[in-house]
Amino acid sequence: MNFTDVRKLSELRSVLEGFAARHAAMNAGSAPAALKQLRALLKRVTHAVRQRDYAAFRSADRELHECIIQLADLPLLRETWRRVWDSLLTFHQQGFEDYFPDNRVLADEHEHLVETIALGDPAAAEDAARSHVEAVWFRIAEAMPHASEPAGDPLQRAAAHLAFRLHCPLKLTEVAREVAFTSPGNLSRLFRRRHGLSFQAYLQKLRLEKAAELLSLTRLSVARIARRVGYRDVSRFGQHFKRAFDATPVEYRVSRR
Questions:
Q1: Distance (Å, rounded) from C-alpha 137 to C-alpha 131?
Q2: pLDDT 10s digits, 117-169
Q3: What percent of the chain stands above pLDDT 70?
Q4: Lowest CB count within 10 Å: 18, 152, 165, 217, which one?
């Protein structure tokens, strides 16, 4: 299977799992046993990630995602999802260390997905599922060199990386060295030349725009949204949001209802 096929299958998985998570959230209130199972599987996933036990992670991860598919309770979805998942197994098994160097981030992604379903918030659950799958694909794409897939310019690689990692600590020096393959000074100049913003200002703009989207479409708390877009200090998030949108997060949400 070539890289283009992998990319298409990953996109299909993202669509299927986003659709499933949306319907799973709709059904969550009437399925306490399924939610209990999901949380038990989340514990297994988290333990395996922390132990860097890829075999245990792979097993628990599949069971967790399949549990979400089952909770969605949609005809033919499980069969279609299994075929796509199995087709991507080889690429998922390429290397735990290469794809998931930050085990805390991986555990957080699964926790966020399960909790949005448990909250019964369809839009938040779909966003969590699709973001999770697309981030996995991006990590695989980064780790696999392909002559047929151009690396893109440094700015393009950096911007794509930021879009998938808003909830993570992100530093110019690390993104420049590990993603853009250029110097911090050059990457900073590229952001200013193309976007008229510094690296940090561009990142903050992305985070606040994503927060505005989640405030409009989901019922997630302001604190959870703040964490989701990379803010550990909710008060600081509120200050930045008000400065950008001339409204507090709560006021903004009310205005969009």
A1: 10
A2: 999 999 999 999 998 887 766 665 555 544 344 455 888 888 888 888 888 88
A3: 88
A4: 152
User: How far is residue 219's CA from residue 2's CA, in Å, rounded to a whole number?
Assistant: 40
Q: What is the pTM of this model?
A: 0.82
- Fill in the amino acid letter for 13: R
Token pair recorded at residue 1: 């299977």
C-beta separation of 43 from 166 below 8 A: no
Mean pLDDT of 192-203: 95
Give the whole-angstrom CA distance, residue 136 versus residue 89. Answer: 12
Instruction: List, in sequence order, the alpha helices (H) in the chain.
Output: 3-27, 32-51, 54-72, 77-87, 89-92, 96-99, 103-118, 122-143, 154-164, 172-175, 184-195, 199-217, 222-228, 234-245, 249-255
Distance of CA 25 to the CA centre of its chain: 17
Q: How many C-beta atoms lie closer than 10 Å to residue 130's C-beta?
A: 20
Q: Which letter does DSSP use for residue 177 in this model? A: I
Kindly report the number of other CB atoms within 10 A of residue 52's CB atom: 12
Span 20-42, average pLDDT: 96
CB 249 within 8 A of CB 188: no
Query: Shortest CA distance to 66 belongs to which of 17, 120, 136, 130?
Result: 17
Can you tell me the distance from the alpha carbon of 128 to that of 117, in angstroms, rounded to the nearest whole number? 9
Instruction: Write the CB contacts of 193 (distance below 8 Å, at least 6 apart in sequence).
Output: none
State whether residue 73 is helix, strand or coil.
coil
